[in-house]
UniProtKB/TrEMBL annotation:
Name recorded for this polypeptide: Antitoxin
A Pfam family reported for this protein in Swiss-Prot or TrEMBL: MT0933_antitox
Organism this protein belongs to: Streptomyces filipinensis
InterPro entries tied to this protein: Antitoxin_Rv0909/MT0933 (IPR028037)
Tree of life domain: Bacteria
Length: 67
């Protein structure tokens, strides 16, 4: 079971390394869409969530580059 989780983590890191820019752009677009749909009522929360998700993708990509 541990090996399967490690393989999944490694695969996520590889994908983030190869496609991190597309993923972060998609997160930004999704955040903007949600912000529009909620008429800006939750802009700060949405921006914070998008920023954290983008940071995670960047960290995964950096870890993938180390392999």
């Amino acid at each position: 079971m541990f090996d399967a989780l490690k393989n999944l983590k490694d695969k996520a890191e590889d994908i983030a390394e190869a496609h991190g820019d597309k993923i972060t752009d998609g997160l930004e677009k999704a955040g903007d869409l949600i912000d529009d749909k909620t008429e800006g009522k939750h802009s700060d929360t949405i921006d914070t969530a998008v920023d954290k998700a983008q940071d995670l993708v960047r960290k995964l990509g950096e870890n993938g580059a180390e392999h």
